[in-house]
Structures are given as structure tokens and as C-alpha cells.
Amino acid sequence: MKKLLLGNAAVARGAYEAGVRVVASYPGTPSTEITEEIVKFDDIYAEWSPNEKVAAEVAIGASIGGARAMSCMKHVGLNVMADPVFTVSYTGVNGGLVFCVADDPGMHSSQNEQDSRHYAKASKIAMLEPADSSECKEFTKLAFELSEKMDTPFFIRLSTRVSHSQSMVEICDKENVELKPYEKNIGKYVMMPGNAIKRHVVVEERIKALKEFAETTELNTVEENNSKIGVISAGIAYMYAKEALGDKVDYLKLGMVYPLPEKKIKDFAAKYDKVFVIEELDPVIEDHCKALGIEVCGKDLFTLLGEYTPAMIKKAVLGIEPEACKAAEENIPVRPPVMCAGCPHRGAFYVLKKLGLTVSGDIGCYTLGATVPLQSVDTTICMGASVSAAHGMAKARGQEFNKKLVSVIGDSTFMHSGMTGLVDIVYNKGNNTVIILDNSITGMTGHQDNPTTGYTIRGEETKQVNLIELCRALGIDNITVCDPFDVKKFEKIVKEEVEREEPSVIISQRPCALLKTVKYTGHCKITDNCKNCKMCMKLGCPAITIKDDKVVIDASQCNGCGLCVNVCPFGAIEKEDN
After folding, report:
1. Are 327 and 335 in contact, with CB atoms under 8 Å apart?
2. Spatial distance between the Cα atoms of 485 and 71, rounded to a whole number of angstroms
3. H or E element: which one contains 223?
4. At 422, which helix (H) or strand (E)?
5. I need a surface site. Which of 93, 264, 308, 447 has the fewest CB within 10 A?
6. How many whole angstroms separate alpha carbon 452 and alpha carbon 464?
7. Phi-psi region of 256 (alpha: psi -120 to 50; beta: other; left: phi over 0)
């Protein structure tokens, strides 16, 4: 039976058919749906871990325990889990172990562009790169098989367009893979220096075997069209090349992108007058070819930035200019990124902007606090950095600056990596104010539960982390909980807390407006009392606009959250039922 599947769903299907038993991940676009699809299989244990490092360690432990295991993350999540990943390269596996990493060329939902192929080379872990959903499934199954055969973890590298596009997939039965016996093996699994030195020898021998495998595997295939032009490519770039160039060139499609073959590439390149390497982001394949003494066209014609298009490839390889696009008959309205109507973070950022505070920001929906008109967020670095970066800013600039400084971080991000920054502030005698934006969910990646929600990935009730007790246990004595829509009270609390001579935490607590449990009703409207002061426009709510120089509220976008009612200084906004 064949079925149309997203690339991410196909990876999940491949893992299921391969007999995976344990999957641990942290949500991150564009990888999130892999684990969400895994949950649909009742006989697989799946979890959202507090962060990617923990997720990797859970998967590694499951592998050592004899189960086939997997962990999925986006490219920046691989940074977080790098420590255990580099070490498991030395230990090897028991049950098959696969890490699925999804890169984000074009930064659709990321703070940087990053090529995860570098991690494969640095950690000396083999990496496969599928080009469509069918390969996503088949490569995942093969990765588990090869992992056990060669005693090594495997990477599956995806990209946004592979993860989120659909193609036909052959649905097969699940393999009956027995749990492998666990045997105590200190030399293999205890990575103290004396053992690690010996395991490094094993790693280098394994790489030699993988290089030999790369020369013969059907993962790396040649497609001949009797052309004098050769193209070497992999993943989604290969699909773009096929669309752009068709049968006008010959292809060496690389399904295994680390280690790369040498003889196979040399033999391929020797046949052609000109060879192009087409790959998004960094010149990994290109540099490999040049190191082999092969003259190729690569980044001299193609950009290091963002995603490729078939038109770009056709122009670079064949010299054919793309056809001009027909202009739209009507102007398409601009749709800038904006927090949703009713977003609980809007009230907090409105107050922070009003107070003129420096705001150390973090990764999540609240990064949008940097956009107009709120423009509150000063920095966004990585998960958890809002807390520790603010500590550094305060230590650099002194107490008076600290009175104008706050950190903002979401509840899920605080659990991910914000706690350690708070410990650092307490331990090293800082006195920063940290605002935890508790919206009761992991928001930007699509509403995943986390340790503060009280539910597992399967919606089962579990122990709920109490943020107040947690912060108190970390050494914070001054903890205040406030609804950010009560803007007057929230402003008063922020003013008080930044003046303290010791660290404090404000928990800005209101659930995400898109949660099923949130039942806003009616909508707000402007009354005749309006002085046209446009104070409500400073909220940046998508439902509030200007028409004929007058403020109006679009009832079709307003969900009746009431924040604008609390902000209007003249009582000129009121809520009415639909």
C-alpha cells in the first residue's frame, strides 16, 4: 500500500517499521512532527524531554539497554546535544541508534543557518540525507540496520523542504526486532580516559569501513543521460536540480553525505567536460571534491545563503534566464510576523516598552516582542541565554544599569536551559530580575506539553513542575505571580522588582490564547468616547487598525481577550458579545 506522507511522518513510519522502541526529543521546527507522528504508534515509548541533551542521553541509554532508539531535533538542538553525541561515537551502540537532525536553510524558524554535515565529520558519525518522503522512510530503516551492523550511531539529515513536503511512501509491516541482551562492558561504555583512548582506535577503524561502504552502497547512485555535464548533489538540492535540469545532465546522487566516497566521485567526474556541485549552505561536497584534485563549479556560482530554487540552478548550469513571473492582478497585503490576537505576552511587552527597560530575550513566540510597535526585546541568542546574558550585562555595566534590565523567558525554555542561568545569578551574587512568561504550553513549535504543563506527550497526567517552588529551591526569595493583562499591576510589580538589591522572579501567568481550554468570547469595539490618542495601537494587536485616521477593531480578528480595554486611558473600548 502506498500513502502520501510528509517527510517527517515518513521518518516516523520508517522508525516504526524498523522496530524502534524508544524516541526522546525536544520540539524544534522543522523536526517536531517526527516525534508527534511517533506518538500515534502505541507500542513505542515516546517523550518530550526537557532539552535536546537529555533527549539524546535517554536515546543513548535505551540503545545501551538493547533497544532501537531515536532522538530528533532541529539544527540548533544538535548544538545542545553535542556533548553526549560526540561520546556515543566512541562507545558505539547495542540497539540501533539514530539521530534525526533537520536543518533550516532560509531560517524560516531559526536564529541561524547551520549545516549539520559538519557535525557528522567532527563526531565521526555516518550521515544519510534523503531527498523525498520515500527515502526518508527507507533511509531511516537502513540507518537502524547499519547502526547495529557497524556498532555506531547514524545521523539522518533533513531540511525544511524535505521535512515539510509530501510524496508517496510504500507502507510496510513492522519488523519484529528483539530487544538485544544487555551485558556489562566497562571498556566499551565507561568513557574515562584509559578506555576512551582504546575506543578512539575503534572509531578510526570504523571510519575506514564506512568509507569502503560509501564506495559501493546503492545510497550513492549515478544517473546517466549521455550528457557532457555532470552534477553532484544530495537531498533537496538534488530534487531542485532534477526539476531544473531534467535529462540535460548526468547525476551523482549522494544519499550518504558522510563519509563521502572518493573513487566513486573521481570516476564520475572524469567522464565530463564540466562538473557542478549543487548543495545548500556550506561547500561540504565541493571541498571534498577539491581535496581530491577534482575541478568543480560550486559556490563560485551558487550562494552560501538560504535556499536554492530550480530557476537559480537552471541559470547557473544552463545559462537559461528564468521566465518573468506574471504580476498579481491585485496587491497582496503585507503580513509581517506578529503575536496572535489575545497573546498573553503582548501585555508584558507593552509594559516593558512603556518603562523603557533593556530586555534580554530568548527563543519562542516572545521573540516577536522585538517587532514593531512593541520593539521591547534587545537581544536573542539561544535557548536560555536571556537569563545568563543579562547576568553578564549587569556584571559588565553595574548596578544602575541592572535597574533598567530584565530577562524574559518562556516556561518551556526555562525548563530547557533557563534554570542554570538562574542558579548562576544566585550563586555569583547577581541581582537580576527574570520574567518567566508562563503561557502553559510550548507555543511556537505548535503546542507541545512540557514539565510545567502536567501532561506527557501522550496527554497523560503527570507531576507538574511548580515554577514558584522550583525558583525558590534555586535560591530566589522574591517571587511574584501576575496576570500580564492587568497592566497597571504588572507595571507596578516590574518597577518594584528591578529596584531590588537581590535577584527576583516575576511569573507572567496567562495561557496561550490558542489553547483549546482558553474560551475567550465576544469581541471589543471602539466607543464614541475615543479621543483618537492611538494608545491601543501601541499593543501591536492584529485586530486593531487605523481606517480613515480613526482606530477600528476588526471583529473578525478580535477574540475578546480584553487587553485593549485595560490599556485605553479613556475607557473608550468595551467588550460586547457576538
Report:
1. no
2. 38
3. strand 220-223
4. helix 419-427
5. 447
6. 5
7. beta
Any idea how long the chain is? Answer: 578
Residues 6+ apart with CB under 8 A from 221: 252, 253, 255
Burial 455-477 (b: 16+ CB within 10 A, else e): bebeeeeeeebebeebbeebebe
Show the beta-strand stretches assigned E in 298-373.
Answer: 358-360
**Exposure of 60 by Cβ count < 10 A (0-12 exposed, 13-18 middle, 19+ buried)?**
buried
Mean pLDDT of the chain, nearest integer: 96
Cis peptide before 503 (omega within 30 of 0): no
Phi-psi domain of 384 (left: phi exceeds 0; alpha: psi -120 through 50; beta: other)? left
In this prediction the pTM is 0.94
Whether the Cβ atoms of residue 254 and residue 232 lie closer than 8 Å to each other? yes
The mean pLDDT of 288-305, rounded to a whole number, is: 96
Strand pairing report for 274-278 and 229-233: parallel
- Whether 124 and 203 have beta carbons less than 8 Å apart is answered as yes
Query: What sign results for the dihedral spanned by CA atoms 363, 235, 132, 11?
Result: negative
At 328, is the pLDDT very low, low, confident or very high (cuts 50, 70, 90)?
low
Q: Which residues are registered as beta bridge partners of 360?
A: 379, 407
* Arithmetic mean of pLDDT, 164-183: 96
Question: Contact, 155 vs 101, CB < 8 A?
Answer: yes
pLDDT for 337: 82
Angle of CA points 393, 359, 543, to nearest 5°: 170
Whether residue 474 contacts residue 418, with contact meaning beta carbons closer than 8 Å, is answered with no
Separation CA 68–CA 178 (nearest Å): 9
369 DSSP 8-state letter: G
Write the pLDDT tens digit of every residue in 48-67: 999 999 999 999 999 999 99
What are 122-144's pLDDT values in tens digits? 999 999 999 999 999 999 999 99
Q: Describe the crossing of helices 310-318 and 235-245 by its angle, rounded to 10 degrees.
A: 60
* Backbone dihedral angles phi then psi of residue 552, each to the nearest 5 degrees: -135, 155
185-188: which pairs have CB atoms within 8 A and are 24 or more residues apart?
188/91, 188/92
Axis crossing angle, helix 385-397 with helix 419-427, rounded to the nearest 10: 30
Task: Count H helices and E strands in the chain, helices first.
Answer: 22, 23
What burial class does residue 521 get, using C-beta atoms within 10 Å of its C-beta: 0-12 exposed, 13-18 middle, 19+ buried? exposed
Q: Which of 28, 33, 11 is nearest to 20 (CA)?
A: 11
Q: Does an H or E element contain 161, and which?
A: helix 160-163
Model confidence at 496: pLDDT above 80: yes
Q: How far apart, in whole angstroms, are the C-alpha atoms of residue 218 and residue 222?
A: 9
Strand ranges (E), 26-145: 45-48, 69-74, 97-103, 126-128
What is the C-alpha to C-alpha distance for residues 177 and 112, in angstroms, rounded to an integer?
39
Q: What is the DSSP letter of 516?
A: T
Question: If you compute the radius of gyration of the chain from its CA atoms, what whole number of angstroms results?
Answer: 27
What ranges in 217-338 are assigned the alpha helix state H? 235-245, 263-269, 284-291, 310-318
Label residue 221 left, alpha or beta by phi (over 0 means left) and psi (-120 to 50 means alpha). Answer: beta
